Amino acid sequence: MSSRPKAHGIVPRKSLGQHFLTDDAVARRIVAAAEVGKGDLVFEIGPGTGALTVHLTRCAGWVVAVELDQVLIPVLRDALGGAQNITIVHGDALEVDFIHLAREAERTFGRPFEAMRFVANLPYYITSAAIRRILECGLPITTVVLTVQTEVAERVTAQPPDMSLLAVSVQFYGRPELLFTISPGQFHPQPEVESAVLRIRPHNRPPDVDAQTFFRVAKAGFSQPRKQLRNTLAVGLGLNKAQAEAILRQSGIEPSRRAETLSVEEWKRLASLFMSNKESVA
Ligand code: SAM
Predict the structure, then answer these.
(1) Is the previous residue joined to 161 through a cis bond, with omega within 30 degrees of 0?
(2) What DSSP element (H or E) covers 234?
(3) How far apart are CA 211 and CA 234, in angstroms?
(4) Hey, which of 66, 69, 86 would you mutate to test ligand 1's pocket, going by the most ligand atoms within 8 Å of its Cβ?
């Protein structure tokens, strides 16, 4: 029973972002950050050889682990030493139906879960897509704990005037915090960059603005982040400059500002006004 890839003769596949965590103290710290309880369901994306999974099965009610690489699944089962409270799914985390998996897990568990959480040392090539899938999966998620590149964690937690579309997207759904960093030497093989553990606490309340409109407006603003919003919004939203300026001013935003300087609240005001202006014109 070892989650160590070397002990199993596993040849890590770079194309699947395989960097296995080798430091058990770090694995415990990551799992502790997720605040998992015995009545909880935890989804793990990319369990690999089980560095986190062994701890998750000990503290969760049920674990659903989604792994794309079939070769690793018997190794993972071996590492788990007969733990009964886990469903191992061979599949792509960007495609599986998390709501369906949660329902199935609940049936097997026999009672409603007290909380649902996500934990993952993410393969870096799917970072943004995976974060988006988790936050938009439609389940009431309490915590999301993800190991990502430090640079990504810093971008996600940035504040005005250093916002990016990634920061706005994550902060629309929840409150992210960078908890601690992990050096490349704690993984096998070593990644080229430092990693960081990010915790996101989703808001879990219906957004006060239509999400589709919010992202349409934010994407238009960030299409040319160095340009003034009066220009980017006019081009991106099919408005003339006077209309773009009017919406910005009504939202209390100076039209010469740039996308990186806006807070999520300001994007929300802008999206609401864009929506009501559209309706009044229609
Ligand atoms: N959790 C393990 C650990 O901490 O040692 C492995 C982490 S490794 C960075 C990423 C894992 O995600 C690998 O096991 C890889 O095969 C798996 N993976 C890659 N792409 C995936 C996808 N689209 N869906 C699910 N798992 C994926």
Answers:
(1) yes
(2) helix 229-237
(3) 20
(4) 69
CATH 3.40.50.150 spans which residues of the chain?
4-202
pTM (2 decimals)? 0.94
Q: Three-state DSSP class for 217?
A: helix
Nearest residue (by CA) to ligand 1, atom 5, is 20
Count of beta carbons in the 10 Å neighbourhood of residue 22:
18
Q: Which residues line the pocket of ligand 1, CB cutoff 6 A?
A: 16-21, 45-48, 51-52, 66-69, 72, 92-94, 121, 123, 126
Every domain of the chain with CATH number 1.10.8.100 lies at: 211-281
Ligand 1 center–CA 39 separation, angstroms: 25
- The string of pLDDT tens digits covering residues 226-272 is 899 999 999 999 999 999 999 999 999 999 999 999 999 999 999 99
The CATH class, in words, for 4-202 is: alpha beta
211-281 topology per CATH: Helicase, Ruva Protein; domain 3 (1.10.8)
Q: Are strands 141-149 and 116-121 parallel, antiparallel or unpaired?
A: parallel
